[in-house]
Amino acid sequence: MPDDEQVHLAAEGFRLLADPTRIKILWALLQGESSVACLAEMVGAAPTAVSQHLAKLRLAGLVKGRREGTYVHYSAADGHVRALLAEALFHADHAGAGISDEHR
Fold it and tell me: How confident is the model at residue 58 (pLDDT cuts 50, 70, 90)?
C-alpha cells in the first residue's frame, strides 16, 4: 500500500485535474509549449483565468515554465502528465457510455 504522503499527493493531483479547463490546458500543453495568451485562445478562457490555472498546475508539478524575455512559455512537466491525462480521457471515453446523465 502507498504511504500517506503518496496518497495525499495523488489525491491533490486528482483534485487539480477535476476542472475541465485545466484538462484542456494540459492537453494543449501536451501538443507543445505555449504562452498564456495562446492557451487562452485554444481553451476558450480569459487569459487571467488561464494564468491562475497554470499557477496551480505549476505548484503541483504538472506544468513547467520557461521564461523568454517578458513571456513565459509553458509545457507539461513530464511524460507522467501525458500518461495520466491519456488514461483519464481513455477511461472517460470508454466508461462514458455506461454513466447516466444524472451521475455526470
Answer: very high
Sequence spans of domains, the chain? 4-103
Paired with 67 in beta bridges are 72
pLDDT confidence tier of residue 98, bands split at 50, 70 and 90? low
Helix (H, G, I), strand (E, B) or coil at 72: strand
How high is the pLDDT of residue 83? Answer: 92
**4-103: what fold?**
Arc Repressor Mutant, subunit A (1.10.10)
Sequence-distant (6+) residues with CB within 8 A of 82 are: 30, 76
> What CA dihedral angle connects 94, 96, 100 and 102, to 10 degrees?
150
Cα 25 to Cα 20: distance, rounded to the nearest angstrom: 9
Q: How far is CA 45 from the centre of its chain?
A: 14
Residue 103 confidence (pLDDT) above 60 = no
* Contact present, 59 and 52 (Cβ < 8 Å): no
